[in-house]
Write a structure and sequence with these properties.
The chain contains eight helices and seven strands, in the order ααβαβαβαβαβαβαβ. By secondary structure, it is α/β, with parallel strands linked by helices. β4, α6 and β5 form a beta-alpha-beta unit. The chain has a seven-stranded mixed sheet, with helices on both faces. The termini are far apart.
């Protein structure tokens, strides 16, 4: 469902503009030096309202986080959340994940998070899934050797599809589970609003970690 236009959106966006990176491709190969201050660099694709990425940034001040969202009013809410907590180690960007190799240099990222991505249920749309092999190959390019892809979804068909795509891309998997909230990996798991909503409705949360090997 499309989000309604927020009141005073222009003013609100301007008020938290320090948290947004314009022209992200200009920083290709320079993110760690010019944006992250030399810290390890992690990316979330599809940050939504920012609950996950802001909590992650708060828990791990030793790292730097960049979050992608394509809907301006949604990314505004995430930026406001980061600003309200005065987080110095997170920035937000509007661009399409298809362009990830135009924005980040080879091996520039230390890891990547995919939380509750659009399942694109129709077969003819499967190539749009963020765990489709064409996307995974791009992630392999920009993530360093030994870096991880962390993937969570409530959609079991998407999860099963993703398992085959990671295997096809030759990305080794660990921490594979189909009920995260009752697993040993729930300790330290950061819940999103979406995650809690669907968990309350009886959906189990699927999770995996893929490790890049080069």
């Amino acid at each position: 469902m499309r989000m309604r236009k927020k009141k005073n959106a222009d003013k609100r966006m301007l008020a938290c503009a320090d948290y947004k990176i314009e022209n992200p491709a200009d920083y290709k190969g320079k993110w760690k030096k010019e944006i992250a201050g030399g810290k390890d660099l992690y990316l979330e694709i599809g940050c939504g309202k920012g609950t996950f990425i802001t909590e992650l940034a708060k828990r791990h001040p030793e790292n730097f986080y960049v979050a992608i969202e394509v809907v301006p009013d949604v990314i505004m809410l995430a930026m406001e959340k980061a600003k309200s907590q005065n987080l110095p180690n997170v920035k937000f960007v509007c661009f399409d994940a298809n362009d990830i190799c135009d924005v980040f240099e080879n091996n520039e990222l230390d890891g990547l998070y995919l939380n509750f991505s659009d399942p694109w249920p129709k077969t003819r749309h499967h190539k749009r899934r963020l765990t489709y092999i064409a996307f995974l190959e791009k992630y392999k390019t920009v993530i360093k050797n030994g870096g991880n892809i962390f993937f969570k979804t409530d959609n079991r068909p998407l999860f099963d599809f993703s398992l085959t795509q990671f295997m096809e891309a030759k990305i080794p998997l660990s921490q594979v589970c189909t009920d995260l909230h009752t697993s040993m990996w729930e300790n330290g798991n950061i819940h999103t609003e979406y995650e809690d909503n669907f968990s309350a409705k009886g959906f189990t949360i699927n999770r995996l970690v893929g490790t890049i090997t080069k």
